[in-house]
Amino acid sequence: MNAADTRHRILMTAMELFWEKGYGSTSIADILSRSQVHSGSLYHFFPGKQDVLVGVLEMYRDGIGEMLLAPNWEGVDDPIDKIFALLAGYRTHLIVTDCTYGCPIGSLALEIHEPDPVVRELMAANFTNWSTAIAGCFDAAADRLPPGSDAKALGEFVLTVMEGAVMQARTYRDIGYFDRNIAVLRDYVTTLLAAAKRDSFA
Amino acid sequence: MNAADTRHRILMTAMELFWEKGYGSTSIADILSRSQVHSGSLYHFFPGKQDVLVGVLEMYRDGIGEMLLAPNWEGVDDPIDKIFALLAGYRTHLIVTDCTYGCPIGSLALEIHEPDPVVRELMAANFTNWSTAIAGCFDAAADRLPPGSDAKALGEFVLTVMEGAVMQARTYRDIGYFDRNIAVLRDYVTTLLAAAKRDSFA
DNA sequence: GTCTATATACTGATAGAC
DNA sequence: GTCTATCAGTATATAGAC
User: Fold this and answer.
1) Cα distances (angstroms) measured from residue A166 to each of A36, A172, B10
2) Would you call A25 an interface residue with chain B, using a CB distance cutoff of 8 Å?
3) Cys staple from A145: which of A90, A105, A149, A165, with CB 3.0 to 4.6 Å?
C-alpha cells in the first residue's frame, strides 16, 4: 500500500461520504473507518478536515470531463441532445438512490454557509466548468437558435434548472418533480429552436 | 416574560440562526445565548434540537402569506408581475446580505441529507405552498397563456429557477448570476405570452 | 417555568513510538 | 508513512433546587 494509494483512498472515501451525509455530518472518524486508514496517516497527508474537502473539490473539478460528461455523452452527437443526456444522467442517479442523492457540489454549496475563500472558489469553479460545457452545446447549435442568444446565460440557466429540479425531487422523494421541471426546460428550448426557424423564413 | 413569549423568542432566534449558519452549525448554546433563554427553559418547550427545527419550519409554513407574499405583492395586481415581484424580493435579500443568505428552506433541504419524515414533509409543504402560490398566478393569467399550459408545473419551475439562481449567486458572491437566470426565465414567460397572442390571431 | 451545574458522547487534532 | 493512545473542546441533553 503506497502513499499515493492511501491519499487517493482517503479522497475517494471522503467524496462518497460528503455526497451521502454532507460535509458537516461526516466526521474524520467516519472517513478513517470506511477507508481503513488510521488517524496519523490522514493527518500526514492533510493538515485538517477542510483540506480533505479541498482535495475532493479538486477531484470533481479535474474529473468533470472523464467522470461526468464523457459517460453521458457517449454516442450522443447533437449538441442539444447532449444537454438533455446530461440531465438524464442526474435522473439516473436520483432513481438508483431512491431520490436521495443529488448534485454533490450543489449540496455542499448550500450546506456550507461561510466557506473559506479556497473552498468557495473551488465550488464556483465546478459550477463554471459545468455551465461552460452546456454553453458549449448552445454555441455549437448557435445557427439553430435565435440570433443574439446568450449561450453563457443559457448554460447557467440549465445548471439552475438541474439544481432546482434535483432539490425538489430529493425533498419530495418523488422523481416526478424532476421530470416536470426538465419537461418545462425542454419546452423552452424547443420554443427557442422553433422561433429561430420561424425567423429564418421571415 | 410569559411562556408564549419565551417559546416564540426561541423559535425566532432559531429561525435567524438556521438562516445564517444552517441547522448543523447552529448549536443549542448559540440559540440560548442569543435568545437570552436558559437550557432548562428550552428543553421545557422542546424535547430536542430537531423539535426546534420543526417549530421553525411550521412558522415558515404558516407565515408564507403574511411574511413573504403580502410584502412583495403590495400594490402589484398583474399575476405575471407578481411572479417577478416575488423573485425581486429574493434579489433584495441577496443584495442586503452581500449574496450570503438565500432561501432558508432550500438551504435546509440540501443541508439535511437524511431528514426525519416530519422534517422532510414540512420542507416539502413549504415548497408546495410556494409553488402553489406561483401556480395561482399562472392560473389567473391562463387566458394569456397557450391553451393547455400546466400552471402547477410552471409554478414548480419558477421555484426551481429561484433556488438555482440563489445558489449560484451565493456561490459566486455575485448577483449577476441571479439576474441572468431571472432574465432567461423572463424571456421564457414572454415567449409563452407571445405564443398565446399569436395563436389567438390564427 | 426558570435557573445552575453537570453528565455523557463525540468532535478535530496531536504526540511520539515504530 | 503508519499506528496507538490521548488531549482539549464542544455538542446535546438532563437533574434537581427554586
Assistant:
1) 32, 10, 32
2) yes
3) A149
